[in-house]
Specification:
alpha/beta; 26 strands; about 475 residues
Amino acid sequence: MQSLNQLLLAINGQRLQGDFDQSIANIVFDSRKAKADTIFVCIVGSQANGHLYVEQAYAQGCRAFVTQEKVQLAADACVLEVKNTSLALAQLACAFYGNPSKELKLVGVTGTNGKTTTATLLHDLFSALGYKAGLLSTVVNKIEQQAIVSTHTTPDPVSLNALLRQMVSAGCTHCFMEVSSHAIDQQRIGGLYFTAAGFTNITHDHLDYHHTFAEYLKVKKAFFDGLDHSAFALVNADDRNGMVMLQNTKAQKLTYALRTPADYKGKIIENSLSGLVLQINGQEVHTRLVGAFNAANLLLVYGLAVGLGEAPMDVLRVISQLTHVAGRFEYVKSPKGITAIIDYAHTPDALENVLATIAAFRKGATKVLTVVGCGGDRDKEKRPKMAAIAAAKSNQLILTSDNPRSEDPQQILRDMEAGLDADAALTTLSIVDRQQAIKMAIMLAQPGDIILVAGKGHETYQEINGVKTDFDDVAITQTLFNQLDK
């Protein structure tokens, strides 16, 4: 329990009514969880407005409210009015859990592609170096090696600060987290103290939410604008918007790059299915990861680790031992010599990067067969672009469902098909059932061919009309290989 008066010192607002001398056991932003001894923060969201449920929360026993709109409640209700309840929620959560981000080194990684890989590799690297570290990612959250189910790329502020407090209590000295554009825009990271921030790249994505690329860019930049002068920011100088991230930041400014001059300079010496050989600031390192996109990710990992005070040679030693992240360029081999690559690529840029990497490994008559879909209730503009890229860089394209969610999967396929030229349209197959699409690719493939199953990566479910059913691309592909190779 904490004093409401003390908690409210964390936010600026006007006390409209009520006795603020009460104790608070929890902070909630879902009216269904509001009850006695809780403070209900009324969030104005895209799906619902919390201010419409204040009477319900009051009836359930809640007597403390934070609002940004006028509400009518009985005189015994404490009401604090603020300019932005989303930011207030984050600041309250930080205060409620004792500002745990100040008790460890919190590193945020943002960008369109590579966030999960970079954050996960950093967690694995620092764990190998002997540190107790936490991870907040799309795939999984971790307190040291204890896995906790992840529901969002970046959790809500209350869950986020609760996890950070658990990490501190467990003795963690570092936490590596993905920072999504949604989280930045919705103030989920408000009030957090970041020791460092990394930027991977920015390409077409989430325009269903941000509407324009300029707005998407602005939101990403806001993360760096909010850094403290004691932090450092490391950005990709190969990305034309990398330097934009640094324009107004107070943090120390650092860069990494494979193609342009930078503080951390990398060069690809070898790139094969067995791994990468990189030169980083003049030192050569062999890694198990593949592809130019992973070379960039590893360079960011190296720069952040060295920036956090680790010895360069120690970092390179551990980098040589790191393995792929679940659902990111993950291999499945068939008994008769077909290779399937499972990858989360769900943006045009990510898909193009993965297919370019595969193309570099092709030998002789090797064919590339791509199975890909697009998620429902998400950015529709990328659908034809992804189909066009896949068709141009594959010998056989099979369009299929990803997570249709509430949309008609046939319509999603039609949206993708709109990106195909006449020749590609003649050879492309559209199969709504994802398992059948993967099966068709295997049946069409010959020994030595490469199948890319793109879009879902680490996900172990498929969401159709609000219902999630078990669906794991890796497991299904392996099962089909075994069945069809008998």
